[in-house]
Amino acid sequence: MKVKLDNLVSMSEVNQNFFEVARKVDKDGTVVILKNDTPKYILVDYKLMKEIFGKI
After folding, report:
1. Predicted structure pTM score
2. What is the CA radius of gyration of the chain?
3. Which InterPro entries match (predicted)?
4. What's 12's domain CATH number?
5. E-strand stretches of the chain
6. Which 3 state secondary structure label does DSSP give 32?
7. What pLDDT score was predicted for residue 52?
8. For 1-54, how does the pLDDT look when each residue is reduced to its tens digit (9 = 90+)?
């Protein structure tokens, strides 16, 4: 999976602006959350997650 640089967000940005980060997920499907400048978590749109992993 290719990640857009615009979809890399820091943990502090998520803490301060969760609504804006969620809007990025709505637009692009995923956001990679960085902790200490290293990818740590992925926030994924629920429908996209179901497509990738099947029924949940």
Report:
1. 0.82
2. 11
3. YefM-like_sf
4. 3.40.1620.10
5. 8-10, 30-35, 38-44
6. strand
7. 86
8. 666 788 899 999 999 999 999 999 999 999 999 999 999 999 999 999 999 888
Task: Give the count of domains, the chain.
Answer: 1
Contact 41, 33 (CB under 8 A): yes
pLDDT for 1 equals 60
Sheet containing 8-10, strands listed edge to edge, beginning at the edge strand earlier in sequence: 8-10, 30-35, 38-44
Task: Name residue, tokens 């960085």.
Answer: 34
**Structural domain range at position 30:** 5-53
Query: 4 by DSSP, 3-state: which?
Result: coil
Residue 1 structure tokens: 């999976």
What is the pLDDT at residue 6? 82
